[in-house]
């Protein structure tokens, strides 16, 4: 379905490198009828927009007020089915959390009506947070997993949708595949379904999803590895999240050199594998992952919540590993990648606090992430993790228009008009006549300051509109684009 | 000014003890014309509200939908003047952060117009986050500090407003009191001003505010200690935030036993002293603080951001210390105490990660805070820190009605009606016709679950209305109370 050619006019920001932003304060980006970026014109005098040949009838979307276009976020690890449990985890850690909170909820997705309600909500929510691409774990149920693929397709979110394979060990009786063969067959059924709605996997891709080694038999892992070899369909799983889990894998797979080797031996460790967490990798495991060019999803909110640990992200980046961010709902409490950026920044600071025995806190650029680095992980890093670095994560000619319109509102100079407090006596109209969100810009802020304020203080209220492949997939109430 | 007697009808929740909530699912709380709780009736059949004698003409405020009344939050440490820098701190740590970001901004509060714009905004913001009591650091300027007191008084926020005293050492030339005597005189001038607008310090209290030892001369500290002795006005300052600061104090005050002793020797360590941070106290210092019954403001967001460290809150609670939460804007990025609860929960988990060398992560109830404990710190704990535990922090007869109305919206059963996605072709009306906030309740959640979802996922959108001493001081657009 062809789109109307569109000119996006105004400032844009994206990541130039891991450590630097490219802030273009006045630009025109032309997006063609296929949702691809046809040209990027920088330093444009917006009062004298020259009309390009062939773009005379293009729609124009201009930034209104203090804002910018930013690449859509990429969530490289999220359990769509666990969304109703977001924020509910008590003082649990990984293995008891699975049994107490997770498996009971996931098993209820045999109810398609329930699945529909939850999946629609989480896809709408992630879109509203600016997530244009998500790697979803569903449940073991084929119909519900296929429904999630349908919902992403309908709502226009780019997604990797995985039926969870789990057939042994830690899998409870009430929630497991009947056998390795059934795991394999059901994985194929979900691949076939996605092929039926999106034959080239252009927007929606299936993804082979062994839950993690402790809930899979060696036979099932081998069958899934074979399936990957035959189809080229990507893989997602969990790796080295917490110490008891790692010890358990050692017991369950005594013949393996280490946890990473369990996947590698089964043909599941390739350049198309996304490994969630990787908090406690040994140097040997890191070397193997690099050798295979497998990818890492860093999930700091979840790792803090379940006290799994602090993944040494900067050290892994220095070693050349490919890393993106994952919200890991509902180990993570939030489906927002912007909030996850904050968590990544704070986790890296906690690592700095922990590592520092010299008393010279904060000298350590070796552990602290910068805002720029966090945003890189959330966009270009994530794009590389999902193998789409040529199509998404930045604004380059030939890439898809997966973007969000960010706006911060400037506090008025005079009386605080947009913030009128209610008064018990006067009965005036109440605070925040328009809900401008939490970020207050006073006018003195540089572009860098504004980006910092957005990352630390912003939320979905600053994401005014979201596009995937040029299609408008979300806009806030009252925003016209 | 007398208020209309009001009956607050619906569920309420407050902290019973440090570790338990009191959830009353159906109650009537009567608040008299002085804003005090006259009675609390539990387990009320709301369809047959009996009319009490003398309350026939009372106004009725009922919970509409899925919500509850909750005590207002108490922010025991916030720099109102630093609000424009919220989220802007880069990779700095305390001492360079002060010079790079803080002193230049604070010094500009000689401009009263600027001060007015910022102070109005931050007071309105904190109210909208449910903060009914705040302990503010202002700047060294008397007129701007007095203006902050006026603004709190007008807007109805209970506040402790302190002019910052700083006359030596780390204080830059462009931003310091001229002498210890001037520090003392200006402190008195601000006390006098508050007395002129609120003679009994009923809503607004002055607070003696030596910035911290590294920016104060011994003479100035002594004069302020004397002022406290003469007036009984409370004190706020910083203590043991990061190691370089502690080393600096050791150099500057070689005659003192330790950092805490610097304040104690000056008569500044009493039961009316609020000590922000206390990340790195020695056992001797903790003993002295307990002996003096001084209070602690825990500021986890700031301590993580500036890599100051993780205060061992549970250990200090076990020792019987009195602790509340502080946002410490702008070391902290957020003026929300709800967000600060989250940060306290995560900081305690990071401490658990750090301390645990056994690999048995998460067994450690000795460091992990619970949601109940975080909420206690935010309400009853804070109340005790500011010396008002008999008046605020819970819903008991005789206490003031300092409260917030919390509401979480339930996701509809059918199609997700409240979340209609915009479509590029159809041009439908966009997402979130009413902005219900980020917390999604699906209906299966217990009261505990709802509280957990609120703490981890909620924001100002869930705080529908706020009262201080029975006066409505904030309500969200469209909320009628």
TrEMBL record, chains A, B:
Gene3D superfamilies: Metal-dependent hydrolases, Urease, subunit C, domain 1. Pathway: Purine metabolism; guanine degradation; xanthine from guanine: step 1/1. Keywords: Hydrolase, Metal-binding, Zinc. Binds 1 zinc ion per subunit. One of its GO terms (biological process) is guanine catabolic process. Catalyzes the hydrolytic deamination of guanine, producing xanthine and ammonia. This is Guanine deaminase. The lineage of its organism: Eukaryota, Fungi, Dikarya, Ascomycota, Pezizomycotina.
């Amino acid at each position: 379905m062809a789109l109307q050619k569109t000119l996006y006019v105004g400032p844009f920001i994206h990541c130039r490198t891991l450590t630097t932003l490219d802030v273009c304060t006045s630009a025109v980006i032309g997006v063609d009828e296929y949702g691809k970026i046809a040209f990027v014109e920088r330093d444009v005098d917006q009062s004298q927009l020259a009309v390009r040949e062939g773009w005379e009838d293009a729609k124009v979307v201009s930034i209104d007020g203090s804002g910018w276009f930013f690449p859509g976020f990429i969530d490289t690890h999220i359990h769509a089915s666990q969304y109703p449990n977001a924020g509910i985890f008590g003082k649990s850690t990984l293995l008891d959390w699975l049994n107490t909170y997770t498996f009971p909820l996931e098993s209820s997705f045999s109810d398609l009506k329930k699945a529909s309600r939850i999946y629609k909500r989480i896809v709408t929510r992630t879109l509203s947070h600016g997530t244009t691409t998500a790697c979803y774990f569903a449940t073991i149920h084929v119909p519900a997993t296929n429904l999630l693929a349908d919902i992403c397709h309908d709502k226009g979110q780019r997604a990797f949708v995985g039926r969870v394979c789990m057939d042994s060990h830690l899998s409870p009786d009430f929630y497991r595949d009947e056998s390795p063969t059934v795991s394999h067959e059901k994985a194929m059924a979900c691949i076939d379904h996605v092929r039926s709605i999106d034959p080239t996997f252009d927007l929606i891709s299936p993804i082979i999803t062994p839950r993690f080694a402790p809930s899979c038999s060696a036979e099932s892992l081998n069958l899934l590895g074979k399936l990957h070899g035959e189809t080229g369909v990507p893989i997602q799983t969990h790796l080295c999240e917490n110490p008891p889990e790692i010890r358990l894998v050692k017991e369950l797979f005594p013949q393996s050199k280490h946890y990473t080797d369990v996947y590698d031996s089964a043909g599941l460790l390739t350049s198309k594998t996304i490994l969630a967490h990787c908090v406690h990798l040994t140097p040997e495991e890191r070397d193997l992952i690099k050798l295979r060019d497998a990818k890492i999803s860093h999930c700091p909110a979840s790792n803090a919540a379940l006290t799994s640990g602090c993944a040494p992200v900067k050290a892994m980046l220095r070693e050349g590993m490919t890393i993106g961010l994952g919200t890991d709902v509902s180990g993570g409490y939030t489906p927002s990648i912007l909030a996850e950026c904050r968590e990544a920044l704070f986790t890296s600071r906690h690592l700095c606090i922990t590592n520092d025995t010299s008393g010279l806190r904060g000298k350590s650029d070796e552990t602290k992430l910068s805002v720029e680095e966090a945003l890189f992980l959330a966009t270009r890093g994530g794009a590389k993790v999902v193998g789409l670095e040529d199509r998404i994560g930045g604004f380059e000619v030939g890439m898809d228009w997966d973007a969000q319109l960010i706006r911060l509102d400037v506090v008025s100079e005079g009386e605080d008009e947009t913030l009128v407090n209610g008064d018990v006596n006067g009965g005036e109209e109440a605070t925040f006549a328009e809900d401008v969100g939490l970020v207050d810009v006073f006018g003195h802020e540089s572009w860098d300051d504004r980006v910092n304020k957005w990352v630390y203080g912003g939320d979905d209220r600053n994401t005014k509109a979201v596009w995937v492949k040029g299609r408008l997939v979300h806009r806030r109430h009252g925003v016209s684009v």
